[in-house]
Amino acid sequence: MIRSMTAFSRSDRSTEWGTLSWEVRTVNHRYLEPGFRIPEELRAIESQLRERLSKRLGRGKVECNCRFQPQLSSDAKLGINEDLAKQLVAASREIDHMLYNSAAVNAMDILRWPGVIDSSAADWDALRKEAVQLFDEALDDLIATREREGDRLKVMIVERLDAMVLIVDQVRKVIPEIINAQRTKIIERLDGLKLELDDARLEQEAAMLVHKMDVDEEMDRLATHLDEVRRNLEGDKPVGRRLDFLMQELNREANTLGSKSINIDTTRASVDLKVLIEQMREQIQNIE
């Protein structure tokens, strides 16, 4: 299953103590690089969350943000940690003196600071379990999104592979004609010099020149690499790195075709192949 490394998911859950929410966002990266922003009261589950994440994702930079909004009943009083609030205000004033154009601290900024609003009534052990379960749901949705995007990437890559196969087949058909024409041209030019040359030697030199222009081996390797790309697209493990390596190999053979080209058709084929390879490479950079 091909998966993209770009995706986003959000999961929310209402509890008797308030509302929990997870936002998980991923972008492409060479390795798995998770980052967590969690309320301090839930920080104890971070190692557990990292373990669950590493078991389900192979690559990508992953940003995981958890929020908890306490539930207050109509007759409940909002508890404020006055000592902490006073410390924040005092620290803010000290910083004001260091700045030329300081901005006034908004009361809501103070209230948003972790620990200022007293949420001691919450059952944090139960909330931690809820947060882990909700994180699993967010991962389920994230992976489903990555797989849907991966299916679209696979379709695009297969279309380019099919186009490359057609080019390889066309080159195979015209190469014998091009080589024979080039061989005849070399012999005619040597004959035109009116030099006394041994026919066998002349034939041998012409054959050596033509052999240097032969790209049959490159076409064989191109076909092999194309088959290997298709095989990897059908695998059930992360294949992004392997596909990226295969793009390098395909590009090498396309470059060799261009360097050996003696005809406008093979030159054009080399350029077309490299364009298709580059299109695939851009998308493969985003595959897990």
Characterise this structure.
Helices cover about 60% and strands about 10% of the residues. The chain has about 290 residues and is α+β, with helices and mostly antiparallel strands. Among the domains are: about 40 residues; about 140 residues, Butyryl-CoA Dehydrogenase, subunit A, domain 3. It has a four-stranded mixed beta sheet with strand order 1-2-4-3, with helices on one face. Helix 1 runs parallel beside helix 4 and helix 4 packs antiparallel against helix 6. The radius of gyration is 32 Å and the shape is elongated. The termini are close together.
Can you lay out the helices and strands and say which pair or pack?
Blueprint: E1 7-15, E2 18-27, E3 32-37, H1 46-56, E4 60-70, H2 82-96, H3 107-112, H4 124-192, H5 199-213, H6 216-233, H7 240-259, H8 264-284
Parallel strand pairs: 3-4
Antiparallel strand pairs: 1-2, 2-4
Helix pairs in contact: 1-4, 4-5, 4-6, 4-8, 6-7, 7-8
